[in-house]
Each structure stands twice: as C-alpha cells, then as structure tokens.
Amino acid sequence: MRRMAARLGNAKTILLVEDHADTANVFARMLRRDGFDVTIAPTAGSAAELCQQRSFDLLICDLQLPDGLGSQVLDTARSRAPTTKAIVVSGHDSPTQLAEARQLGFEDYFLKPIDYPTLREAIARILG
Q1: Bridge partners of 69?
Q2: 5 contact partners, CB below 8 Å, separation of at least 6
C-alpha cells in the first residue's frame, strides 16, 4: 500500500469524522501508515469547523453523529472545495442506505465494522 499511497501522493488529505475515539484512532493510524495526512473530527460541528478552515481531498464520515449528520459535513466540505470526495460509514444496516448515501453525494458506503483493505481499495479508486 505504501506504493499506492506514494502514487496517490503523500499530500492527500483525509478528514476522518468518527465519534468513537478508539475506532477513529485505529483507522487514522492505518491511513497515516499508508502515507495519508489524516485529521480526526469527533463531531459534525468540529468537522464543519475544520472544513471551513481548509479543504480535504477525502472525507470519511460516519453517517449518524451525536450532533448532526454526515451529509451536513459533506455539504460544508463541498461548499469550500466542490471536488471533495467522500465515503460514508455507518453502523446501521439498511437496504436503502447505499442508494441514499449516493444521492447525498458520497462515492462509497461502508457498514461497520469496516474491513481496512477493502476501504483502502475504495480510497485508491476514488482518489486515483
């Protein structure tokens, strides 16, 4: 994967929006190991604030956050940087959620628990 991250460019930035601290830290560590610059936001509000300050290449965002929705974070990110790519993650399995996530503008959808190699492949496809 280091070769893939190098091909994608070590400057690729990811905003990881996840309210479960252990999950966020584990995924951030793996993404950083693969050469990405990762910023963690635990809430929709903190993510929106970060998105107003700077742009990110990729948003990986929980769909249901304690203070809002992942779609709100995506709207804020794209108001600053319209080409921001996004992946939604959710702990709720619903037959319609993938379609809904795509309608909201997310490029991909993952159900928790997430298989990191599969997520890594999606990131390469989306950012590639």
Answers
A1: 64
A2: 12, 34, 35, 36
Rounded to whole angstroms, the Cα distance separating 71 from 84 reads 13
Q: What is the DSSP letter of 89?
A: E
Whether the Cβ atoms of residue 16 and residue 41 lie closer than 8 Å to each other: yes
| CB atoms inside a 10 Å sphere around CB 110 | 18
Query: Over the Cα atoms of the chain, what is R_g?
Result: 13
- 2-115: what CATH class? alpha beta
Q: Going by C-beta distance under 8 Å and a sequence separation of 6 or more, which residues neighbour residue 12?
A: 5, 35, 36, 37, 57, 58, 127
CB 80 within 8 A of CB 56: no
Per DSSP, helices labelled H in 81-115 are 97-104
Q: Domain boundaries in the chain?
A: 2-115
Using CA atoms, how far apart are residues 83 and 79, in angstroms rounded to an integer? Answer: 10
Q: Encode pLDDT of 57-106 as tens digits.
A: 999 999 889 999 999 999 999 999 999 999 999 887 777 877 888 898 99
In this prediction the pTM is 0.89
